[in-house]
Design brief:
Elements: H1 16-27, E1 29-33, E2 36-44, E3 50-59, E4 62-66, H2 70-78, H3 81-95, E5 98-100, E6 103-110, H4 114-126
Antiparallel strand pairs: 1-2, 2-3, 3-4, 4-6, 5-6
Helix pairs in contact: 2-3
Region (Disordered): 117-137
């Protein structure tokens, strides 16, 4: 005896693409001014503030991305800036980041690398705060 199971999948709503797009746009926002793009991400710091990632062009076709030192600022506010700085240096060494005045940055990125780098930078910015976002890669 052979039993075959069929899972009925309801048809997708005709406007599901539009709904998904609206939701994704609500999760993040971007503004460009002063030659820099600022992206508010859905990742939250312990204070409840959104992690902001900044992208600026270094030279033709090459970019720098940074979390603007928000992770360092939060650590100072919470009283564990020394621990954060030490961990940030360790992570920077492992992930090819630079640390400049507490800000984690990736440099010399091509346009095709920016989406992945943006995701990584926002996670790195909050990874050391016990927010449950320990992915640093």
């Amino acid at each position: 005896m052979t039993i075959t199971s069929f899972i009925a999948t309801p048809p997708a709503a005709p406007d599901l693409d539009e709904i998904a797009w609206e939701i994704s746009r609500g999760l993040a926002s971007a503004q460009v001014f002063g030659g820099r793009a600022y992206l508010r991400t859905p990742m939250l710091l312990p204070s409840g503030a959104s992690v902001v990632v900044m992208i600026e062009q270094e030279r033709a076709g090459r970019f720098r991305i940074t979390e603007l030192g928000q992770g360092n600022d939060e650590a100072e506010t919470l009283g564990f800036s020394r621990i954060y700085r030490r961990q940030a240096e360790d992570v920077a060494g492992l992930q090819g980041l630079t640390v400049d005045q507490g800000a984690l940055s990736l440099r010399d990125l091509g346009r095709e690398e920016l989406t992945g780098a943006t995701h990584g930078a926002r996670q790195r910015g909050s990874a050391h705060h016990g927010t449950g976002n320990a992915a640093c890669g």
